[in-house]
């Protein structure tokens, strides 16, 4: 119900009361005292209700306001109406908060809401089970004061939360956690912690299985190769039919041996990445050695290999892994570029990035295949890969190496016009070598 109070209506009512009291006082010959008494009565009445209102607002626990008629009744009714609306809004807000908390408690992950200064605002029960953080007991505490893992401190220091942070649970050393930070609202941060212990164990089992199987295959392959080479070395011992069969066996053993070798490299890259330490790498010298080695691979197809290297630019990393990644890109270009094609190798700094690129004018790659090139055993053309001896593991090795070095692989290719594979190293990896002249050369 709407109620409107105007100055005019108040003035008219007050005037009517005073006129009535003055008229009655005039009849009895006491007009002025009657006006004073009426005015005093009005003041007492208003102050009485004013004190009742103050007492109700500050002392009374009753929800319903005092009862009254007239203008004060309207005021009480308006206040009660506002209280009911506020209570309904509070109920709706509490229901939303309850639903939010029920949803957050139903999450399989530990969830924490942080302020922009990393102080804890709210957390679910799984945050206590996985991170040891209690809510509301730890309300207002900084998250880095409760999670003191060095890797988490470094993660917060970088301020880049695109990738997750992996750490061991402070509550249970057998739990491996994956932490992610993301913006939540305008001035808050949501932290999610997921238990990936099972996935981590399965990944370790897979890596151990691949490594063990690869090692076990190495010995029988060596024995088979030895006997095949011994038979092939015996002059006039076999007729041409059997000689061709053993040549085929030898080529397949070689292919299998190469596959096992790449599996071993991949296992070593996955398992030992956290053990090895980063050292300064003279990229110009490393790339030059790889190009010299490529001459032997290039004897049959006679590619024209050109290179341009910034001889003053190096990086910090794991030497064996970087060498493996760069060698895979160069050998792929040689394997999949037609005879007498062109291959260009480039090492340079562009802005705050160091870029190693291998460009060829080969057949190119379809757009739908580019995103899958780094998958294990994925081949764009299975028949062509068999002809070139490809195993489908080269770019998978490159992917893992770059992950360890916070680098990125960018592939640009057009069918029929060639491909360019580029590795982008972050500026934090770059180092400056002693002043030398940039290397440029062509190798026919």
Automatic annotation (TrEMBL):
Keyword NADP assigned: no
Locations listed in the record: Cell membrane
Primary residence: membrane
InterPro entries from the UniProt entry: BphY/WalK/GraS-like (IPR050351), HATPase_C_sf (IPR036890), HATPase_dom (IPR003594), His_kinase_dom (IPR005467), HisK_dim/P_dom (IPR003661), HisK_dim/P_sf (IPR036097), PAS-like_dom_sf (IPR035965), PhoR_N (IPR021766)
Residue stretches making up the Histidine kinase domain: 212-429
Transmembrane region(s): 12-45
GO CC aspect terms: plasma membrane
PANTHER family found in the cross-reference section: PHOSPHATE REGULON SENSOR PROTEIN PHOR (PTHR45453:SF1)
Identification of the protein by name: histidine kinase
Species name: Thalassomonas viridans
């Amino acid at each position: 119900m709407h109620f409107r109070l105007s100055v005019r209506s108040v003035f008219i009512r007050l005037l009517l009361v005073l006129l009535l009291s003055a008229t009655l006082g005039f009849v009895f010959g006491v007009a002025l005292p009657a006006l004073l008494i009426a005015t005093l009565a009005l003041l007492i009445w208003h102050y009485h209700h004013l004190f009742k209102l103050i007492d109700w607002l500050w002392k009374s626990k009753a929800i319903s306001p005092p009862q009254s008629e007239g203008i004060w009744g309207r005021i009480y009714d308006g206040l009660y109406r506002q209280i009911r609306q506020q209570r309904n809004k509070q109920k709706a807000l509490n229901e939303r908060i309850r639903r939010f908390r029920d949803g957050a408690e139903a999450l399989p992950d530990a969830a924490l809401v942080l302020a922009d200064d990393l102080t804890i605002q709210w957390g679910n029960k799984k945050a206590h089970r996985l991170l040891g953080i209690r809510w509301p007991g730890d309300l207002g505490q900084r998250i880095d004061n409760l999670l003191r893992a060095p890797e988490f401190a470094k993660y917060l220091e970088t301020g880049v939360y695109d990738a997750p942070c992996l750490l061991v649970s402070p509550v249970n050393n057998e739990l491996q956690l994956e932490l992610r930070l993301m913006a939540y609202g305008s001035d808050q941060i949501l932290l999610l912690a997921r238990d990936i212990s099972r996935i981590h164990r399965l990944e370790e089992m897979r890596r151990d299985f691949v490594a063990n199987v690869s090692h076990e295959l190495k010995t029988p392959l060596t024995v088979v190769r030895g006997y095949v080479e011994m038979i092939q070395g015996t002059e006039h011992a076999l007729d041409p039919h059997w000689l061709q069969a053993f040549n085929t066996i030898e080529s397949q053993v070689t292919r299998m041996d190469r596959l096992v070798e790449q599996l071993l490299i991949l296992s070593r890259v996955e398992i030992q990445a956290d053990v090895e330490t980063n050292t300064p790498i003279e990229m110009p010298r490393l790339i030059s050695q790889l190009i010299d080695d490529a001459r032997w691979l290039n004897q049959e197809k006679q590619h024209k290999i050109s290179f341009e290297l910034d001889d003053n630019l190096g990086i910090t990393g794991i030497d064996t892994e970087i060498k493996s990644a760069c060698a895979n890109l160069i050998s792929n270009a040689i394997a999949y570029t037609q005879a007498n094609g062109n291959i260009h190798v480039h090492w340079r700094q562009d802005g705050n990035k160091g870029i190693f690129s291998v460009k060829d004018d080969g057949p190119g790659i379809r757009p739908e295949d580019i995103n899958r090139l780094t998958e294990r055993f994925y081949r764009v053309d299975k028949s062509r890969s068999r002809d070139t001896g490809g195993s489908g593991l080269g770019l998978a090795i490159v992917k893992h190496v770059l992950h360890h070095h916070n680098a990125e692989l960018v592939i640009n290719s057009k069918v029929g016009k060639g491909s360019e594979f580029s590795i982008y190293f972050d500026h934090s990896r770059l180092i400056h070598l002693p002043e030398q002249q940039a290397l440029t050369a062509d190798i026919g």
